[in-house]
Amino acid sequence: MRLAIIGGGSWGTALAIVLAPRFERVHLWVYEVDLAERMRRTRENDVYLRGCALPENVDISTELGAAEIVLGVMPSRHARRLYTNALPHYDPSTIFVSATKGLEQGTLLRMSQVLGEVAPFKPRIAVLSGPTFALEVARGEPAAVVIASGDLAVAEQVQAAFSGPTFRLYTNSDTIGVEIGAALKNVIAIGAGVCQGLGLGNNTLAALITRGLAEITRLAVAMGGQPKTLAGLAGLGDLVLTCSGDLSRNRKVGIELAKGRSLTEIVGSMPMIAEGVETCDAAVALGAKFGVDLPIIQQMHSVLHNAKSPREALRDLMERSLKGE
């Protein structure tokens, strides 16, 4: 089989590396022409994943390639445009796997919904998520993720195609829970970075992760997701990793915010996108739409977009009205 990956950032490159042994050819689509040329020459992504060699059966191109499975790993803000451009190259037999952890601004759609909306045919869709840092996956360190689809046969086909010695997939039918967990954990991770930047300890971090998971679960269930999904790899697992790991981009945003840097300055200095910044807007809007209380996410929105001080946001969270867990 052939695999096409749309997105040559750190995660797309890491997936190309770990999945290359499972496919005859892997076609990696890269947006930047100069980066694609260097990657072909050096077999390395020197911008997003320096030091990790690309296998010989990975073809790097700025053009889309034929494949039986298409893996979308683009930033959420570009998903609609890139899927619209890509879909004419494929047909209903193609399996589309979304590995983008975000929500579309304005429409509040999950990535699988965006894909389904722009497709000229009924696409076979699965979503991939779980606790993964691109660098560790590319290095061959063991990782476990979830592949979810409303069509179990599709999930099982991707599971069989992607699973290998260092990359284990578990099937799930709850695409809503998986995608909401993947998107909202980035917002909570910014809060975790704020705690780190303020010099707070493990008690605070544990409370943030636990109560953050409660918020994510409430919203996912209100939207039709399953609580057990959020207790698994795509929920708790990914949340713990992103809130505690030094490789987390969203956590780094929170650390810098706590130091007093502006959001514009922080984002402008980062070569890669921290999805939690944009997802925060959509998360607050979804909370209002479904009548779900999201106090941590709402406070993070005030810090990110209303210039509220991190210490004031923390105080307001601690001084909320008392209630049962």
- Sheet with most strands: strand arrangement: 5-2-1-6-7-8-9-10
Mean pLDDT over all positions: 96
Q: Provide the low-confidence segments as ranges.
A: none
Distance between the termini: 49 Å
Oligomer: single chain
Strand percentage lies at 5-15%
- Which word captures the global form? globular
- Helix percent reads 40-55%
CATH class type of the largest domain: Alpha Beta
Secondary-structure arrangement, i.e. CATH architecture of the largest domain: 3-Layer(aba) Sandwich
CATH topology of the largest domain: Rossmann fold
Number of domains: 2
Reported for the largest beta sheet, the result is: 8 strands, mixed
Within CATH, the superfamily of the largest domain carries the name NAD(P)-binding Rossmann-like Domain
List its traits:
alpha/beta, 325 residues, globular, single chain, 8-stranded mixed sheet, 15 helices, 10 strands, N-(1-d-carboxylethyl)-l-norvaline Dehydrogenase, domain 2, 2 domains, two-stranded antiparallel ribbon, Rossmann fold
